[in-house]
Amino acid sequence: xxxxxxxxxxxxxxxxxxxxxxxxxxxxxxxxxxxxxxxxxxxxxxxxxxxxxxxxxxxxxxxxxxxxxxxxxxxxxxxxxxxxxxxxxxxxxxxxxxxxxxxxxxxxxxxxxxxxxxxxxxxxxxxxxxxxxxxxxxxxxxxxxxxxxxxxxxxxxxxxxxxxxxxxxxxxxxxxxxxxxxxxxxxxxxxxxxxxxxxxxxxxxxxxxxxxxxxxxxxxxxxxxxxxxxxxxxxxxxxxxxxxxxxxxxxxxxxxxxxxxxxxxxxxxxxxxxxxxxxxxxxxxxxxxxxxxxxxxxxxxxxxxxxxxxxxxxxxxxxxxxxxxxxxxxxxxxxxxxxxxxxxxxxxxxxxxxxxxxxxxxxxxxxxxxxxxxxxxxxxxxxxxxxxxxxxxxxxxxxxxxxxxxxxxxxxxxxxxxxxxxxxxxxxxxxxxxxxxxxxxxxxxxxxxxxxxxxxxxxxxxxxxxxxxxxxxxxxxxxxxxxxxxxxxxxxxxxxxxxxxxxxxxxxxxxxxxxxxxxxxxxxxxxxxxxxxxxxxxxxxxxxxxxxxxxxxxxxxxxxxxxxxxxxxxxxxxxxxxxxxxxxxxxxxxxxxxxxxxxxxxxxxxxxxxxxxxxxxxxxxxxxxxxxxxxxxxxxxxxxxxxxxxxxxxxxxxxxxxxxxxxxxxxxxxxxxxxxxxxxxxxxxxxxxxxxxxxxxxxxxxxxxxxxxxxxxxxxxxxxxxxxxxxxxxxxxxxxxxxxxxxxxxxxxxxxxxxxxxxxxxxxxxxxxxxxxxxxxxxxxxxxxxxxxxxxxxxxxxxxxxxxxxxxxxxxxxxxxxxxxxxxxxxxxxxxxxxxxxxxxxxxxxxxxxxxxxxxxxxxxxxxxxxxxxxxxxxxxxxxxxxxxxxxxxxxxxxxxxxxxxxxxxxxxxxxxxxxxxxxxxxxxxxxxxxxxxxxxxxxxxxxxxxxxxxxxxxxxxxxxxxxxxxxxxxxxxxxxxxxxxxxxxxxxxxxxxxxxxxxxxxxxxxxxxxxxxxxxxxxxxxxxxxxxxxxxxxxxxxxxxxxxxxxxxxxxxxxxxxxxxxxxxxxxxxxxxxxxxxxxxxxxxxxxxxxxxxxxxxxxxxxxxxxxxxxxxxxxxxxxxxxxxxxxxxxxxxxxxxxxxxxxxxxxxxxxxxxxxxxxxxxxxxxxxxxxxxxxxxxxxxxxxxxxxxxxxxxxxxxxxxxxxxxxxxxxxxxxxxxxxxxxxxxxxxxxx
Length: 1234
Prior knowledge:
The protein is mostly helical. Among the domains are: about 1-25 and about 35-115, no CATH class; about 500-660 and about 730-750, Leucine-rich Repeat Variant (Alpha Horseshoe), CATH 1.25.10. The radius of gyration is 36 Å and the shape is globular. This is Importin-4.
């Protein structure tokens, strides 16, 4: 090692670093940096750490060794490393100063990691002996040192000391329970918690399950100590998320401790500790919800949440008070705060009720625990509070009604399905609307309006029927004396306007526009002006042409406000700019008063000036103004469609550049244990040592170990990393992504090549963004950009041979030809995609897609990625995935099995000791969930993970065609297994789930794509799965099941055609769906009589009837003669014609009718003759309906009708002609045109 002269020289240099002379210190620091380049001086620090009498020298040596020792360690001679390790242990044992000892433990940890990485414990056996001596000592100082060293060695202990886990468990447990010195107990608590957290995702952690109750006890004893409490809460939060059920037995005690923390006063417990406890409680509720119910914890959690909510009432009132102030008063207050250096932000910018602990707890409870356990307690408590006029007892005059309303607000998202039920919703409206309308308290009127706004947002479509009653109340409250009430009324009007028809809005339009324009100009502060403009934008879009009488007044106000330049008013400028986009959309609607033409000619003169203002506004670098500007550009593109061509270049440049704006992410590191080397030391002695001279000596850089660092590049144990992200920047980028997608969809194809590549590169860059919703948004924009490539570089039209092949292929499963499809079904591919597009797919899209799938933990992002892949296949056919088909299918199967990265256990709340043994078959160490939560976590488009994977599989089955047979077995098996989790459809174990409905649709698409005989191996299994869904209350379930059943029978080959018993059962199961026609036809007739568009509840049932018709037709066509009762089926199908909604089933039904006409069977011919008039009429009506439907090709169905009439004419020309002549003129004309 270094000689004594060098060691003494270095000691003198280090001493000079602490003298009160700047020049001397700078000179000493320079000498230290130079010394650190040479190995012998680093070794000298080890000697000083052991022998120096100066605390400052030992401390600095310990820190510098932490910083640099790892890089030079591997280049030291073996004998030097042996002596260095001895010095380190001796120094640690002898060190009396706590801070020096702490830093030395991390030096030991760094060396231990390197010595034992490959050789295990044999790399440094003395270390284990040293630890055992310290731990067995009766001296508290040495026990604490042992625990601190174990804490620092956690990563090494977790990977190397596995054979000693039982001893460690006993050691930690003994000190946690029996240590007399509180510092020892705290050190043991930290060490045990760190190890359990480190091992939390593997089964090794089960060795330490007995420590968890002790850790919970340690939290209970130390939760007033912020450093200890937050660290332990982080550990317990990690354990709650663990795929290993180590926390299950401690859930009850842990929740009770957490509730005690949350109920503590602010004087007793710091707010940071309460926030951390709230986060941990939310995680426990999400991951261990069954234990919350099992231990009857719902009520205490609810009571505590209400307690916390009540404690936050003064903050709510303060926020409202700020928002009542004028803009001048707010600015003066801000100036006063800055002058007084209060360090507090302006509370007027806070959202009411947002970001507070009470709301977060209520939301977590209702989102995590099954609604049957929380609905009644929450509604009961809320209604009890609403019924009381006085303030809640013991809650510092918190109004009972405010508590009741707040409960309903923050539970709406989690209980939306239950709240949307008619009887519940009507009761809630009866109790809340009067408060909003006539309460004497502005606080209560505001909160009631917030409640109504939440319901309008989350309880659609059930709440839509109440919109006409809610709208006049909201309009009336625009004149309220309270600024905040008027602002909340604007919010409610905005959402109502988004969801109602223009005829409902029409009676209030004049009053709305007048009041909203007045508020936009004369509102007392920026907040009310902005909400008024936002509401006005929604009114414009809904009103459409009806808004044109107010066009000039609106433009005058918007022109004035969109020119504002004062910084406090830029928000208003932004909303005015966005309102221009909404006005453009209103002008783009066909106007009956202009013979169906739009009013865009009236808006067009504004565009040039509007784009100039938008560009100027971006120079302010105000992110909210930017966001609203991007939204305006997107709406402008949507309104003008291809007429946007002159503006495309400017708009594309603005939107692409927006995606490169700096996110301004800040990292706040809290390091109470001193785990990290201080930045001041790192900056002085760690940043530039690899530069400059020193090449003549094997310096630290030459001996560097690539992954050696004092803490590594991941999250260090004991350190809290908090990222601060400017949400306004993220929201601006999301708006830019959305607008970019709108521009791609509407720009003329000639302009697309100019900006597609740059747009795609910018979007791909966003896939690595830290914010999940931004990544999901990027995928959705990439999907739109894919459509742009398809438009800019289109596939050539199918030649005659390919067209005829497409027809023949469609005829095999009685489906219509897609006239827009330009690719050929099947692999190997028999067509080519433009080389430019294929290059983008192969080099940019698919590599990034697989990377995201492999690493992304957010389900919504993965759902968006799967949707992108589905749209890519839909646009470019099987060639787009040909090279990676098996890998893509493996991804899909992994999602179905719950083994994707984003499905790593969301929750695992079974108890391995429960009598009902729910864990049977899964294993205590299961690392993935079963995907039960996959209906949640939907992307921005609203498509869930399960829907996305099923849509992709269905599309792949359709595109790959018969070649999919080699993959169909595993895929269909995975789909059926997934569908049966939690009970097969119709089983006694539970109701039919949305997941099962979605899977049914995927199975139908795959079966259809396989072609004749492709589904034979599993046809009966598909049918058994579909039949129970036919009786489901959900219309989509009945529709999908009918389609699957008919398709499976049609394409099962000879498997079922002679099985009369099975086919009769299927017919009997389908007939009730045909019976739904009468009622839905009456409802549709009433709606048409009132000149109303048909609502979903009617069109959904119409589609069910149509799919059932198609299924029955396929049954009859595939059954052997005499197997099914034609006399029962033929007239039933005739009564169903023409089809109502899903005209794609016309082909199957018309083919069935044609087959019956051409049949040689005497019984079938008898049915045709006895119903000939009805048959001719039904076919004629079907032809008229086909001509009315432009979106669906009816080529093959018309062919069947032609062949049917040809057969009828051949059989009895005179009678057939008489029947045609007796038809109504429009129908006769359609038949004669054939």
